[in-house]
Specification:
Layout lengths: L1 E4 L5 H17 L13 H9 L3 E6 L2 E10 L20 E8 L6 H12 L2 E6 L4 H10 L2 E7 L5 E8 L6
Parallel strand pairs: 4-5
Antiparallel strand pairs: 1-2, 2-3, 3-4, 5-7, 6-7
Length: 166
């Protein structure tokens, strides 16, 4: 599987993947995390323009998408019921989704991001058990609760690669 930066021509495929992801979440006990059409087309266009959106490609088909941002994330400045495990520069992973055809996309995403930055942060909705399982399986540690822009809580995790100096 190849991971590359998304380009604007990828937008129709990305939108379809997020639609499938929203349906998957609804069918699996998480109906509110991406309700109301989130992430919106305008947000995704901005992610692409900012060179923060990545796609996972298998057999020339986009099968997954995520956003990866290195540097301060405003929603991570305040954490409750815990603390981050480090204060070094971090990479934040947002909005991981797949079309469901290929297994292991989340792990490939985490591998890709940890190669770009050794300290990672991620958050997820309390009802998103598949993502909670994926981050814990990879080695992320639960840190506490953060709040996203609309004020709703998310479980926050971080991960520090054992290979910090490379």
């Amino acid at each position: 599987m190849e991971i590359r930066q998304a380009v604007i021509d990828d937008l129709p495929a990305i939108l379809k993947i997020y639609e499938k992801a929203r349906n998957f979440m609804k069918e699996n006990g998480n109906p509110t995390q991406w309700a109301g059409g989130y992430p919106e087309k305008e947000l995704l266009e901005n992610d692409i323009k900012q060179k923060q959106c990545y796609v996972c490609v298998e057999d020339n088909q986009i099968v997954g998408v995520f956003v990866f941002i290195i540097g301060e994330d405003p929603t991570y400045q305040i954490i409750e019921q815990g603390a981050w495990h480090d204060s070094m520069t971090y990479g934040t992973i947002h909005r991981i989704a797949s079309d469901g055809r290929i297994k292991g996309i989340t792990q490939k995403c985490f591998d890709f991001c940890s190669e770009k930055n050794k300290y990672l942060r991620i958050d997820t909705h309390a009802d998103n058990l598949p993502m909670q399982n994926a981050v814990q399986k990879y080695g992320f540690q639960r840190c506490g609760i953060i709040y996203v822009r609309d004020g709703s809580p998310r479980i926050a995790y971080d991960y520090l690669s054992q290979d910090k100096d490379s």
